[in-house]
Amino acid sequence: MQTMTAAEIRNCLANTSKGEAQRLTLPASPELVPWADLDFLGWRDAKAPGRAYLVTPLDATVVGLALSATVPPRSLMRSNMCQFCHTMHDAASIALFSARLAGAAGRAGNTAGTYACTDLACSLYIRDLRKPFLPQPQETLTAPERVARLRLKVAAFVTRVLDGSSGSRRAA
Ligand SMILES: [Zn+2]
User: Cross-referenced InterPro entries, in alphabetical order (predicted)?
Assistant: First the structure.
């Protein structure tokens, strides 16, 4: 990813109010973020553990989403594989992230959800810069293919959230 400033991060969130964006807790100071190793920037709000954020390049721009993170009881857990990077996790290292849809659909309470690495460090897992707790099944994809897959999956999720907005505008 390209380096971003704190102001740029706050200004790119698509599914929050301006006030929420100003109040959110940013990750470590932007100078400390390993931008070159990231396909997207994801972090948990250090002051509100149920909140998380994801910022990713999309087409020619950068889009951020506010997410809420929950850990379903094991019996209701539908997957222990991150849907973004395909890392297999123990129950403590995967969470269900849901995003309020952008625009009117979101104001009506509609969300989109996905299972992902609790720490949202998918970019580091696929580059072997962070090791998951569980041994992983053999991947048939090469490293560049894993990067491409991660970017596609994240873009698809973000597009789903944004389309909630354009879809309802068309219907109105
Ligand atoms: Zn992941």
Answer: EF-G-binding_C (IPR032330)
